[in-house]
């Protein structure tokens, strides 16, 4: 386990008007006489990954014992560099709805698709093949419902297909895709409203979904958001007078502070700092000045990843690590090349 | 000392008084002296004041008087009146009242040839808008059809005529005389009174306010014109010349003229354009039938010694000029009258009449024409002149007694109805005189087979009236022969850039004042504008303060008949002034009663008179728009019933109690009463500016004191519709609100419900518009929440990367990917498929096919009908209408068949570098039977570097950098901003409203509610902070963010939350321009100018100066000549003139020719100089 969370070196301090000690100091040479050189076993011993909550759509877990740069790199990769499948070219055969072709295409592109990206190749400039493109079709025509009650105003009852939802996208298997793609491709959420129609209006569209990454366009992002916050750590420097206990409690998010009765005296106690939202309300009141310190643990990252539905949330973090390893692999090869060059007398560098 | 102390001390004195005393107590406390007056303290005289039991009529224990939700009167008002009521009311008045008046004034046509013939108009009506084509199944015309087909939305004007046919008298109803363009939503408009669904069927937007015309397919607004009020005395001084003048612009149906009474060397004169000289005032009065000097003195100066002394010199002047009798005075004036004989008038030239007759005529009809002279009774006019003299005398003595030209009460607004009625009268007179000459022409012919029927002649009269209306409205040139008036720029094209710009245009008021003059007076904010004209909404720059906008609750009056009012005034005890002498008129306590500026009589009990008059008005016996007020300085009671006065409704307060109570508001909430019921019940009344200044109006209910007469309905109504969009405007520095008023009109958003069926020249739409998180009551009332122009962006107020200096904004790339700021630009392209006089016609052709059998690349979009298909993408250079015109279109001698003529291509091609899509194609025919093709081309644009954005607080900025989402800072919830704004935008701009908007918006997001930022009210900051704290945020709205780049927390807390951002129409794509080489102007051979002509970038004078200063001569030579318009000329060293190909035409020799390179423009200059007989010579020397 890492050093105690009471170690002031791990604290990011929240002052009333600024944040202090935001950067880590445990690098070599910062503290005289201490060895902070990176050490795999030490690092591995300190590293903790603990899942706190897992649902169909999101995952919350703690990542403790890494530097902010590592945690952030993973966050950035989650947002921007994990490949997913999204609709890119759209072929509009018929569109008499009020939604313009480009806008419709844009909306379709943003629909998250539940397709395992590992089963497709990047298309790049290649021709569309069953190995790189998934085809969807959409053909909806709105008709009047003659059986609707007279005086009915609800369009859902008055017409058929008055709304186009993402569930109306029909996968059209190409080549051997039925076998290679595993579970049949479909939008991750069937209830995304794409357009509204009125009788006589018709939409017929063919869509090609391809693999891409979010740094190209946000539609390829596998996450709604991926972010982290640091673990709050509340230090009570002086006892809080009994009469202020309730007020003190209310300065924090519910469940953070508990009041214990002790011989008629009310005593406050931090029970669940994890719930604190750092509203800094306690720093606003004169009564508590100097009695409490708000801090956060600098290397305690409470991650929350919300999946768009492409990946199960539990897989996302490991995906990000494999992307990162890939990048490190590329980097490592380049560095080794350079090193070899330097050792080989630098001749190769000229070429 | 603050009043709070006073209350505190009094509560200590009597603590037993309950805080909510019964209302009876209030009455008691009106006399605080009775209730144990504290002994006056000798050292502190204020002590007495402080410890009074009531302060300004309010006691501590008074119940808190408050009518909840009295603002609901505002939506009730708008439901009855609408947002552009002033235009529509004025137009309705014109159609229903004025038209008939004009007809009555010009209702008879007689013939010079046949004295037995006459033709009379008896009735006039305007119908419903109809198609002009005959064979339509449904001849009901909708405005939208007119917009699309480039036709005019007009209705026939029909009259009933009676005339003689031979010996019979014939009556013909429903005779059309022309067509009148109909104002949308006026009483004659098809749209009036339709339900939302019916409007939808007519492709009309229910939120569209109307009030404009559709003429030849364009929407035209007749702007409200501001003028100085007519028929009122205005007294001014010129301190430089020591001159005092009282002037009156008399305006009647026949004539407009200005008369002055002014001082010159402390003598008083009457001046008028029709006199050569100024007339000494005593002579003028003598001519106006007051012969006795004593009477003149009394009428002008009264019994005041000072005025008498000042006036006496004028009596001496008249004596010096030997004018004693009326006859002498008339002769004096008559010799100075300008003779304006109508040169083109019919009849023999009249001999000059005697001088006195000329003078009589001038005085009776021209000078002060608005004061009627019946039966040559000049006394009313004499009294009017003496009143003017009196005002001059008063102003001479006390220079504070002058009038303020800029006072809103002295202004009248001229609206569409008035302008149209001026135009109609002119056109109708022309029509009648044309008709008369046509009838005369027929009647002159000696023999006819049948009796002459004037009706047939009438039918061949042509569309003079129709064409006159259409021409005036579509060009904006109002030329009226009667007044020799020539006014340009009366109408404007309705700006449909955004819903707000259209609405803002309908409330705009333009001033007649020239923009170029550098005077501050007319531009300054007038205190009397309060509640009438918006204090924020005015443009910057030259028109600043001259173009104004109406506030939300203002109404502009239309004319109300004045005879009944005069009669009523007499009934209420007004005495005839003609029976009074100067002593009585000017005796203290006597007030002159004026009706619309002319004197109606005298009253000795002005207060009672005014109170009674108001009572009658509140009871509905007089029109609610008649105002009455007392001017104590001039000892006048003014009753005004003329049109063009600005007024607004107010709650009546009687006995310190507003007459509108919670009960009434309850009725209103339940919808059982309307605003008009409040008016009829006498709970609410309209006050115009003059009467408003004679009233004591409480802003809030708790400020009502015993003298209060009225209560404001709602303070935020002092702002107009456009300024009403700003959240918390009362927290902003005032220029910021003004800037926002200008920018709100450029914001891209939804413009109308029918926006996708419109084909406008240029239409900007936002793909995903949102209603603002922080709205205001005004926003709801005008429907901005239904047709918004902007999006709620999550903003972080922080510095980022340096690409945000000077107001630049940082945008989040992921937000743009997801549709933030995405907009559409639709552009109309029109062409006519013409038929030519020689029976040839244009045609639409197939795509040109290449060698491979497929259409050429630029013709790919063309379908078999020769027009691009709907939905086809168009790239630069693509052809979307493949039109061909006949080669011999203008050859009128051509008689052959139209089938075998040669055609040449005249296609329309797409120009923009960005791909566009064909959105709509319209094929229709115009009124003169040409086929009209309109193609609407759409572009969808995502924001890019350099696009302009603005919040609602006059804080505009361009996009400086687009940042990936992962690089953006994020808060604990993982939210990252859509926009980063630099905090340096705040200190100097002081837009605190924007900060509160963020706070309220953030709180609103947390509780899932929209917050209000209504002016002088809105959601309170304290409540917002509380919500934030309850939801785990800092009360200050500042979040702790984590850098997206380093992953470490930022060292400062960041102001973070939603702010409503508008995307403005200025986009880089429309502006960027560069060229290396390109077209040149034909005349000068220099590069063309401007982006639209692919012009060059000018190296201007100042840039040239830099290069000269630097000594970069070769660069100068290159930029200014070689790269521009270098030209080789041959020049003769002998004569210095230019020749050609080595030959000097002047010297007839080729001996001394030299070749040199000069700019073509220089060569052109020499030749042009030669053409005007100036000989420039080029003197050449050999280089040493």
From TrEMBL, chain A:
- The answer to keyword Nucleus applying to this record is yes
Looking at the UniProt record for this protein, which Gene Ontology cellular component terms does it annotate, in alphabetical order? nuclear DNA-directed RNA polymerase complex; RNA polymerase I complex; RNA polymerase III complex
Compartments, as annotated in UniProt = Nucleus
Give the Gene Ontology MF terms in alphabetical order.
Answer: DNA-directed RNA polymerase activity; protein dimerization activity
Domain of life, per the record?
Eukaryota
- What region holds the DNA-directed RNA polymerase RpoA/D/Rpb3-type domain? 58-334
Broad class of the protein's primary localization: nucleus
Record SMART domains: RPOLD
GO BP annotations of the record are: DNA-templated transcription
Q: Which UniProt keywords apply?
A: DNA-directed RNA polymerase, Nucleus, Transcription
Q: Which InterPro entries match?
A: DNA-dir_RNA_pol_insert, DNA-dir_RNA_pol_RpoA/D/Rpb3, RBP11-like, RNAP_Rpo3/Rpb3/RPAC1, RNAPI/III_AC40, RNApol_insert_sf, Rpo3/RPB3_RNA_Pol_subunit
The entry sums up its family as follows: Belongs to the archaeal Rpo3/eukaryotic RPB3 RNA polymerase subunit family.
Q: Which NCBIfam families match?
A: PRK00783.1
The identity of this protein, by name, is: DNA-directed RNA polymerases I and III subunit RPAC1
Please spell out the taxonomic lineage of the organism that makes this protein: Eukaryota, Fungi, Dikarya, Basidiomycota, Agaricomycotina
Automatic annotation (TrEMBL), chain B:
What keywords is this UniProt entry annotated with? DNA-directed RNA polymerase, Metal-binding, Nucleotidyltransferase, Nucleus, Transcription, Transferase, Zinc, Zinc-finger
**Where do the record's region annotations for Disordered lie?**
1-46
Which intervals hold domain RNA polymerase beta subunit protrusion? 82-465
Q: List the GO terms this entry assigns under cellular component, sorted alphabetically.
A: DNA-directed RNA polymerase complex; nucleus
Q: Which reaction does it catalyse?
A: RNA(n) + a ribonucleoside 5'-triphosphate = RNA(n+1) + diphosphate
The principal localisation class reads nucleus
InterPro entries in UniProt: DNA-dir_RNA_pol_su2, DNA-dir_RNAP_su2_dom, DNA-dir_RNAP_su2_hyb_sf, RNA_pol_bsu_CS, RNA_pol_bsu_protrusion, RNA_pol_Rpb2_2, RNA_pol_Rpb2_2_sf, RNA_pol_Rpb2_3
The source's domain of life comes to Eukaryota
Instruction: Locate the compositionally biased regions of type Basic and acidic residues.
Output: 25-34
The residues covered by the DNA-directed RNA polymerase subunit 2 hybrid-binding domain are: 722-1093
Compartment(s):
Nucleus
UniProt-listed Enzyme Commission number(s): 2.7.7.6
Any one GO MF term held by the record is: DNA-directed RNA polymerase activity
Q: Name one GO biological process term.
A: termination of RNA polymerase III transcription
Q: How does it assemble?
A: Component of the RNA polymerase III (Pol III) complex consisting of 17 subunits.
Q: Which family does it belong to?
A: Belongs to the RNA polymerase beta chain family.
Q: What does the function comment of this entry state?
A: DNA-dependent RNA polymerase catalyzes the transcription of DNA into RNA using the four ribonucleoside triphosphates as substrates. Second largest core component of RNA polymerase III which synthesizes small RNAs, such as 5S rRNA and tRNAs. Proposed to contribute to the polymerase catalytic activity and forms the polymerase active center together with the largest subunit. Pol III is composed of mobile elements and RPC2 is part of the core element with the central large cleft and probably a clamp element that moves to open and close the cleft.
Q: What is this protein called?
A: DNA-directed RNA polymerase subunit beta
List the source organism.
Botryobasidium botryosum (strain FD-172 SS1)
């Amino acid at each position: 386990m890492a050093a105690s969370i009471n170690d002031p070196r791990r604290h990011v301090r929240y002052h009333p008007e600024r944040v202090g000690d935001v950067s880590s100091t445990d690098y070599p040479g910062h503290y005289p006489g201490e060895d902070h050189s990176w050490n795999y076993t030490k690092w591995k011993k300190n590293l903790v990954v603990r899942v706190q909550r897992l649902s169909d759509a999101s995952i919350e877990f703690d990542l403790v014992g890494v530097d902010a740069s590592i945690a952030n790199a993973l966050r950035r990769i989650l947002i921007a560099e994990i490949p997913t499948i999204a609709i890119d070219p759209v072929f509009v055969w018929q569109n008499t709805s009020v939604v313009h072709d480009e806008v419709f295409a844009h909306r379709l592109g943003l629909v998250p698709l539940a397709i395992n990206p590992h089963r497709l190749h990047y298309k790049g400039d290649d021709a569309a093949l069953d190995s790189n493109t998934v085809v969807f079709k959409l053909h909806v025509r709105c008709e009047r419902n003659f059986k609707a009650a007279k005086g009915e105003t609800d369009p859902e009852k008055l017409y058929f297909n008055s709304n186009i939802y993402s569930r109306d996208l029909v996968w059209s298997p190409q080549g051997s895709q039925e076998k290679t793609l595993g579970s049949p491709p479909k939008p991750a959420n069937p209830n995304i409203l794409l357009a509204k129609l009125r009788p006589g209006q018709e939409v017929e569209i063919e869509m090609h979904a391809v693999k891409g990454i979010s740094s190209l366009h946000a539609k390829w992002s596998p996450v709604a958001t991926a972010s982290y916050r640091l673990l709050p750590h509340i230090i009570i420097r002086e006892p809080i007078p009994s009469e202020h206990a309730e007020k003190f409690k209310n300065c924090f998010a519910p469940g953070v502070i508990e009041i214990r009765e002790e011989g008629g005296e009310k005593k406050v106690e931090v029970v669940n700092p994890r719930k604190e939202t750092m509203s800094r309300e306690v720093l606003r009141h004169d009564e508590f000045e100097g009695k409490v310190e708000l801090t956060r643990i600098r290397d305690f990252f409470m991650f929350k990843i919300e999946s768009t539905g492409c990946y199960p949330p539990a897989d996302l973090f490991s995906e990000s690590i494999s992307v990162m390893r890939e990048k490190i692999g590329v980097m490592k090869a380049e560095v080794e090349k350079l090193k070899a060059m330097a050792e080989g007398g630098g001749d190769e560098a000229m070429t | 000392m603050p009043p709070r102390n006073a209350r505190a001390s009094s509560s200590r004195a009597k603590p037993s008084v309950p805080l909510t005393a019964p209302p009876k107590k209030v009455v008691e406390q009106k006399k605080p002296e009775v209730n144990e007056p504290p002994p006056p303290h000798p050292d502190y005289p204020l002590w007495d004041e402080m410890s009074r039991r009531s302060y300004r009529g309010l006691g501590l224990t008074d119940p808190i008087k408050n009518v909840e939700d009295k603002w609901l009167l505002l939506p009730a008002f708008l439901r009855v009146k609408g947002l552009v009521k002033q235009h529509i009311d004025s137009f309705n008045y014109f159609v229903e009242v004025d038209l008939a008046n004009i007809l009555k004034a010009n209702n008879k046509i007689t013939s010079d040839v046949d004295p037995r013939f006459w033709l009379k108009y008896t009735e006039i009506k305007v119908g419903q808008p109809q198609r002009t084509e005959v064979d339509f199944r449904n001849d009901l015309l909708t405005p939208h059809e007119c917009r699309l087909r480039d036709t005019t939305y007009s209705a026939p004007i029909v009259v009933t005529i009676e005339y003689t046919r031979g010996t019979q008298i014939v009556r013909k109803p429903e005779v059309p005389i022309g067509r009148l363009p109909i104002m949308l939503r006026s009483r004659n408009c098809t749209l009036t009174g339709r339900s939302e669904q019916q409007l939808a069927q007519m492709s009309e937007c229910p939120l569209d306010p109307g009030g404009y015309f559709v003429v030849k397919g364009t929407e035209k607004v007749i702007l409200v014109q501001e003028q100085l009020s007519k028929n009122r005395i205005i007294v001014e001084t010129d301190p430089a010349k020591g001159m005092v003048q009282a002037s009156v612009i008399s305006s009647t149906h026949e004539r407009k003229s200005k008369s002055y009474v002014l001082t010159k060397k402390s003598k008083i004169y009457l001046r008028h354009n029709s006199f050569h000289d100024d007339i000494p005032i005593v002579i003028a009065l003598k001519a106006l039938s007051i012969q006795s000097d004593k009477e003149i003195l009394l009428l002008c100066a009264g019994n005041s010694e000072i005025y008498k002394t000042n006036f006496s010199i004028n009596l001496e002047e008249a004596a010096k000029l030997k004018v004693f009798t009326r006859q002498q005075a008339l002769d004096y004036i008559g010799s100075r009258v300008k003779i304006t004989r109508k040169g083109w008038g019919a009849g023999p030239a009249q001999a000059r009449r005697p001088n006195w007759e000329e003078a009589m005529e001038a005085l009776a009809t021209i000078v002060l024409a608005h004061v009627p002279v019946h039966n040559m009774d000049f006394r009313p006019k004499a009294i009017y002149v003496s009143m003017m003299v009196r005002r001059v005398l008063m102003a001479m003595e006390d220079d504070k007694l002058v009038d303020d030209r800029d006072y809103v009460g002295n202004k009248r607004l001229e609206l569409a109805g008035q302008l149209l009625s001026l135009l109609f009268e002119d056109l109708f007179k022309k029509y009648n005189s044309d008709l008369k000459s046509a009838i005369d022409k027929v009647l002159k012919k000696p023999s006819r087979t049948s009796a002459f029927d004037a009706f047939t002649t009438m039918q061949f009269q042509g569309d003079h009236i129709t064409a006159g209306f259409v021409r005036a409205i579509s060009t904006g040139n109002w030329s009226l022969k009667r007044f020799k008036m020539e006014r340009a720029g009366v109408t404007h094209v309705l700006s449909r850039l955004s819903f707000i710009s259209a609405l803002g245009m309908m409330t705009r008021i333009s001033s007649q004042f020239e923009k170029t003059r550098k005077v501050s007076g007319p531009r300054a904010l007038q205190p009397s504008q309060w509640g009438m004209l918006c204090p924020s909404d005015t443009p910057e720059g030259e028109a600043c303060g001259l173009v104004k906008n109406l506030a939300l609750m203002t109404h502009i009056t239309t004319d109300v008949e004045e005879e009944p009012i005069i009669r009523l005034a007499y009934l209420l005890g007004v005495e005839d002034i003609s029976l009074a002498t100067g002593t009585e008129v000017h005796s203290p306590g006597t007030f002159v009663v004026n009706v619309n500026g002319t004197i109606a009589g005298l009253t000795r009990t002005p207060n009672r008179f005014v109170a009674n008059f108001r009572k009658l008005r509140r009871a509905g016996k007089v029109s609610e728009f008649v105002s009455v007020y007392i001017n104590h300085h001039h000892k006048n009671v003014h009753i005004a019933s003329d049109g063009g006065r600005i007024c607004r409704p107010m709650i009546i307060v009687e006995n310190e109690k507003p007459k509108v109570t919670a009960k009434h508001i309850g009725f209103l909430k339940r919808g059982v009463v309307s605003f008009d019921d409040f008016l009829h019940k006498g709970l609410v009344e309209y006050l115009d500016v003059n009467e408003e200044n004679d009233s004591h109006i409480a802003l809030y209910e708790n400020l009502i004191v015993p003298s209060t007469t009225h209560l404001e309905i709602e303070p935020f109504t002092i702002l107009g519709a456009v300024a009403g969009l700003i959240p918390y405007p009362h927290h902003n520095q005032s220029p910021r609100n003004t800037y926002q008023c200008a920018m709100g009109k450029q914001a891209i958003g939804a413009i109308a419900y029918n926006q996708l069926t419109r084909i406008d020249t240029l239409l900007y739409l936002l793909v995903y518009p949102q209603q603002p998180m922080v709205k205001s009551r005004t926003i709801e009332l005008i429907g901005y929440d239904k047709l918004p122009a902007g999006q709620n962006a999550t903003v972080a107020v922080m510095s980022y990367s340096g690409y945000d200096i000077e107001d630049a904004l940082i945008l989040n790339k992921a937000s743009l990917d997801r549709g933030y700021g995405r907009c559409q630009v639709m552009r109309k392209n029109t062409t006519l498929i013409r038929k030519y006089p020689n029976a040839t016609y244009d045609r639409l052709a197939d795509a040109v096919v290449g060698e491979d059998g497929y259409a050429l690349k630029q013709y790919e979009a063309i379908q078999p009908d020769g027009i691009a298909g709907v939905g086809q993408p168009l790239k630069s250079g693509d052809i979307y209408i493949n039109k061909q015109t006949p080669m011999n279109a203008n050859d009128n001698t051509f008689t052959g068949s139209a089938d075998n003529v040669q055609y040449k291509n005249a296609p329309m091609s797409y120009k923009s570098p960005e791909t566009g899509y064909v959105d709509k194609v319209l094929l229709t025919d115009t009124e003169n039977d040409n086929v009209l093709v309109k193609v609407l081309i759409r572009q969808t644009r995502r924001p890019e570097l350099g696009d302009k954005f603005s919040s609602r607080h006059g804080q505009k900025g361009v996009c400086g950098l687009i940042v990936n989402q992962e690089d953006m800072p994020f808060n604990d919830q993982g939210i990252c901003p859509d926009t980063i704004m630099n905090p340096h935008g705040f200190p100097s701009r002081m837009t605190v409203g924007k900060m509160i908007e963020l706070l309220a918006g953030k709180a609103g997001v947390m509780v899932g509610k929209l917050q209000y930022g209504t002016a002088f009210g809105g959601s309170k900051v304290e409540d917002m902070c509380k919500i934030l704290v309850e939801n785990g945020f800092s009360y200050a709205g500042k979040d702790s963010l984590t850098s997206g780049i380093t992953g470490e927390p930022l060292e400062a807390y960041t102001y973070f939350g939603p702010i409503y951002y508008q995307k403005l129409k200025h986009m880089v794509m429309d502006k960027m321009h560069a060229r290396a080489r390109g077209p040149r102007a034909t005349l000068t051979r220099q590069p063309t100018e401007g982006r639209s002509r692919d012009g060059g970038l000018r190296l201007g004078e100042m840039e040239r100066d830099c290069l000269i200063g630097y000594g970069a001569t070769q660069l100068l030579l290159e930029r200014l000549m070689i790269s521009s318009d270098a030209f080789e000329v041959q020049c003769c060293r002998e004569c210095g003139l230019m020749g050609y190909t080595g030959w000097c035409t002047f010297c007839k020799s080729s001996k001394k020719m030299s070749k040199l390179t000069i700019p073509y423009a220089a060569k052109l200059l020499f030749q042009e100089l030669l053409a005007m007989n100036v000989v420039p010579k080029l003197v050449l020397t050999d280089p040493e």
